Structure formats: structure tokens, C-alpha cells
Amino acid sequence: MARTADHEQRRRQVAHALLRSVGRRGLARTTLADVADEAGVSVGLVQSYFRTKSQLLRFGVEYMYKQGEARLLALAEGAGPASVRDWTLRASETLLPLDDERRLELTVWLEFLPVTMADPEMSRLHRTTTQQLLDAFAHAFGEGRRLGELPPSLDARAEAAALVAFVDGLTLHHLVTGGDFAEDAIRTSLATYVDRLFTAPESS
């Protein structure tokens, strides 16, 4: 068991090093040697876990997505959010680059997205993870309808997709554009979006 735990810890160490390397140099300029140097290990050790850069990238992206999933699951711990609206805002905020760790992860995410256009396995990973995120928000919105926080006619799946797209847009502009998309601004924009969703009048 200890050997397995050490093995997984080493893989996580390499994954962290990959994220830091890609965040600093960009994906195209990051090599296995860069990752090994960042992790403080030999290239041979990295290659013993990952034979190619593509395998390493898949593991790093999977690790990044699992970090995001863990943040969402953590919202259910303790007393939990007081309402569906509260959960929606807090869950959405976990997807924004609002601290150094998430900023690094989402910088790597922007580097990763073009790869999904040409790599079927990366495309599958991205689609699967996105669908899981949509499922979580759609389920929450269904609960919101049941509890009377959202109108009965609301299309939970469509609103989930719209929210994820909005959050992705905030992330992109915060990381790339800046200015009007500074941290406080995107927090306010997200809160405004969620408030409008939960206060929208029922259409006749």
C-alpha cells in the first residue's frame, strides 16, 4: 500500500510540475525535460510514468479537472449552501481564476483547449468533463424549480449551458484581456448574472 501511495504521490508531483511549466512557458515550448526540472526529478523518472508528452498532458489535465471536481464536492460539506441560488454562485466562483492555484490551472486550460481540436482522446476528456459540469448545474436548477426558487418553465439544461459559457467567457477575458475583467469585476458580473437568473419573472 505504501508503495502505491508513493507512486501516486510522485505522479501528482509530476502533474503539478507540468502545470507550472505550461503556465510559465506555454504548452508548445514545454518539454519532458522542463517538467522533470520543475519537479526536481530526472527525465528518466518522468518517462517511467509517462512515455510521451501527450500522455503526460492527459494526466495533467485529468488532475486539473479532478481538482475542480473536488472544489465542487467540498461545497456539500458542513452546513452547505443555504439555497440553490447560493450554491449556484459559490459553485460558479470555484470555476473562476480567483486565486493563484486556479489561475494557473485555467491558464493551462486555455493552452489545452486547442489540443482538443486534433486529439480525439483529449476531445473526449473535455466533452465528458463538461457534460458532468452541465449535469451538476442542471440538477441544481431542477431542484431550484422544485423548491420555487426558479420558475417552473425554466429549461434547466439550457440554463446550465448558458451559465457555463458565461463563466468560461469571464475566465477567458480575465486571463487574456484584463482591464474591465479584473477580479472584482468578474465576481460582480457573475453575481449579477446569477441574481438575474433567480429573479427572472415567469413568462406568460
Report what the structure shows:
Residues 8-68 form the HTH tetR-type domain. This is TetR/AcrR family transcriptional regulator. InterPro entries: BetI_C (IPR039538), Homeodomain-like_sf (IPR009057), HTH_TetR (IPR001647), Tet_transcr_reg_TetR-rel_C_sf (IPR036271). The chain is mostly helical and 204 residues long. The protein folds into 2 domains: 1-51, Arc Repressor Mutant, subunit A, CATH 1.10.10.60; 61-199, Tetracycline Repressor, domain 2. Helix content is 74%, strand content 0%. The chain has 9 helices and no strands. The longest helix is centred in the middle third of the chain and has 28 residues, at 120-147. The model has no long low-confidence stretch (mean pLDDT 89).
Number of helices: 9
CATH topology of the largest domain: Tetracycline Repressor, domain 2
Mean pLDDT: 89
**Portion of residues in helices?**
over 70%
Number of strands: 0
Radius of gyration: 19 Å
Shape: elongated
H and E order: HHHHHHHHH
The CATH C-level class name of the largest domain = Mainly Alpha
CATH superfamily of the largest domain: Tetracycline Repressor, domain 2
| Total domain units | 2
Cα distance, first to last residue?
61 Å
Q: Which class do the helix and strand fractions yield?
A: mainly alpha
Profile the largest sheet.
none
Please state roughly what percent of the residues sit in beta strands, choosing from under 5%, 5-15%, 15-25%, 25-35%, 35-45% or over 45%.
under 5%
State the CATH architecture of the largest domain: Orthogonal Bundle
Ranges with pLDDT <50 over ≥5 residues?
none
Domain HTH tetR-type: 8-68
Keywords: DNA-binding, Repressor, Transcription, Transcription regulation
InterPro entries: BetI_C, Homeodomain-like_sf, HTH_TetR, Tet_transcr_reg_TetR-rel_C_sf
Protein name: TetR/AcrR family transcriptional regulator
